[in-house]
């Protein structure tokens, strides 16, 4: 299996650069309009309609915007968990309590992230989520997700597997990021659905 992983990694690096270059050309208006449409589409998901706890994240830069969606979920009384990046790239979690409950945190040479203020619930808190909203750069026809390469969400997915937890896994992307194929490695896990500004697509 290891030779597959070695071949996939340079391919993934190149693909990441390509998808990020397209995102970086988006204007602030493009990002804002897409975020509003994305929230509307995501709220059509029955999994989100019935969820009591949703693990999500705060989008940064030109990522598909999540704040509008987080605010609707929070207003509905859904418990929204947001990640805080740890030194080893693992994720701790805290509860979202509106935009005022976020702090901008600069992680060394990496991008600044918006993380929840208040009590840290521990890395295992994600195992209690009904839905996990995942960031990504692309997803393919099988539901395989291309992440940013930091490995944080690989750890989350491994933790869910160890805990025998089976939340709905949903990736939030732009329409152009649903592609025919992304390279995969042995540890990669498919998602159940992708939400883009124009559609919800499910994978079996």
Q: Determine the N-to-C terminus distance.
A: 24 Å
The biggest sheet amounts to: 7 strands, mixed
| Strand numbers in spatial order across the main sheet | 3-2-1-6-9-10-11
Strand content: 15-25%
Structural class: alpha/beta
Mean pLDDT: 91
Q: Percent helix among the residues? A: 25-40%
Q: What's the total count of β strands?
A: 11
The SSE string, one letter per element, is HHHEHEEEEEEEHEEE
Number of helices: 5
The dominant shape is: globular
- Determine Rg (CA atoms, Å): 16 Å
Poorly predicted parts:
1-5
Characterise the protein shown here:
The protein has 204 residues and is α/β, with parallel strands linked by helices. Helices cover 30% and strands 22% of the residues. It has helices spanning 2-24, 28-42, 46-49, 67-75, 152-162; strands at 53-55, 79-85, 91-95, 102-106, 112-116, 131-134, 138-139, 145-146, 168-172, 193-195, 200-202. The strands form three sheets. The protein has a seven-stranded mixed β-sheet. A two-stranded antiparallel ribbon has the order 4-5. Strand 4 (102-106) and strand 5 (112-116) form a beta hairpin. Helix 2 (28-42) packs parallel to helix 4. It is globular, with a radius of gyration of 16 Å. The model is unreliable at 1-5 (pLDDT under 50).
Identify the notable features of this structure and list them briefly.
204 residues; alpha/beta; seven-stranded mixed sheet; 11 strands; globular; disordered N terminus
